[in-house]
Amino acid sequence: MNVILRMGCFCGKEAIHVNNRSFYTKSRLGEGGFSYVDLVEDVNSHKLYALKKITCHSKDDERIALEEVEVMKLFKHDNIVPLEEAAVVPINVYTKMRDVVSEVLIIMPFYRRGSIEDQMERLKKKNEHMSEIDLWKMFLQICEGLKAMHHHNPPYAHRDVKPANVMIGDDSTPILMDLGSAAKARVEIKTSAQGRALQDQAAERCSMLYRAPELFNVETHSTIDERTDIWSLGCVLYAMAYLESPFESVYQRGDSIALAVMGRNLKFKDIGYSHNVEETVCFLMAINPMERPFIDNAIDKVTDIINSMENRV
After folding, report:
1. HSE toward the beta carbon, residue 97, CA cutoff 13 A
2. What is catalysed by this protein (predicted)?
């Protein structure tokens, strides 16, 4: 469930009740197709939170929205967004649109520093880049968040890892959020119908610029696993370093992103980073998923790079 950040402001007089807590709406933080996110304040503690409201047009929509809540409950990790509260609010058909059956409300922490995408925009405006050691340390923590998902029994994949879905805490901790695309990672594709269904789901839930090649063309008699996220990680590392997706220029030209992804035509700029950045991006973005590393291999590689850099200082 992708959230497009769009700043706006309005003041809410009425309190929103989620379970036994009440919140006042302060402003609109973002909007997506069937959801929006508001900045809210706890009436009692005056602490700020993000409230995600998912509009459900059917019981099936409601089931999918509640899957996001259940996935959030599964993971307690410093690098994965925690769930504060969640509730389903039935909609009175006489006061609301008749084709809406309910709203699912999700209360999460509010991250005032925004996302890695926001940070990329700030750096771009100042014509600056992250220092390489900060780049690796932040990237390692993103990997650690994914490790918690990939090591779950059964393994889960996030399926929409991108800079806009990694928030930054006050202490610079990166936090994976927007678990609406997350699902059990390992899927055996036995029929062409299964392949088409997963491909359609990926098209709806996984951002094109960060989507793994095997999700553009899901082959029959193949197995999809958590390494879809590893490709996305490679794209995120590239974006954090060079302040744009590896396929941004393809998108800007209006060319086929699917063809560019499946051909993995990567271009690296010389901005003063070591060869480790280019080498690790290529390591993570192996076109054949069976040749792609698992998260533990990625963490080992990044840890070795950090250790070698710190030993040189």
Report:
1. 8
2. L-threonyl-[protein] + ATP = O-phospho-L-threonyl-[protein] + ADP + H(+); L-seryl-[protein] + ATP = O-phospho-L-seryl-[protein] + ADP + H(+)
Task: Output the pLDDT for position 10.
Answer: 43
Q: Which of 227, 224, 239 is nearest to 281 (CA)?
A: 239
Would you state the structure tokens that stand for residue 67, as one six-digit string? 């899957």
Radius of gyration of the chain (CA): 20
Amino acid at 246: P
Q: How far apart are CA 35 and CA 25, in angstroms?
A: 16
- Domain shared by 18 and 60, yes or no: yes
Q: Catalytic amino acids? A: 160
Instruction: Looking at the structure, tell me whether residues 178 and 308 fall in a common domain.
Output: yes
Q: Domain of 61: which CATH number?
A: 3.30.200.20
- Residue 241 has a CB neighbour count (10 Å cut-off) of 23
Mean pLDDT over the full length of the chain: 92
Distance CA 88, CA 125 (A): 41
> So what's the pLDDT on residue 98?
61
Helical (H) or strand (E) element with 62: helix 59-74
Q: What is the full DSSP assignment across 177-204? A: --GGG-EES-EEE-SHHHHHHHHHHHHH
State percent of the chain over pLDDT 90: 88
Domain boundaries, position 128:
116-312
Distances in Å between the alpha carbon of 125 and those of 4, 45, 168? 20, 36, 19
Amino acid at 154: P
pLDDT at residue 107, rounded to an integer: 98
pLDDT digits (tens, 9 = 90+) for 31-43: 877 899 999 999 9
**DSSP H or E segment with residue 122:** helix 116-125
Q: pLDDT value at position 1? A: 36
Query: Is 2's pLDDT higher than 50?
Result: no
CA distances from 305 to 165, 230, 279, 302, 308 (A): 25, 18, 11, 5, 5
pLDDT for the residue numbered 3: 35
Answer yes or no: are the C-beta atoms of 84 and 107 closer than 8 Å. yes
Clarify whether residues 73 and 206 are in a common domain: no
Q: What is the CATH number of the domain that holds 125?
A: 1.10.510.10
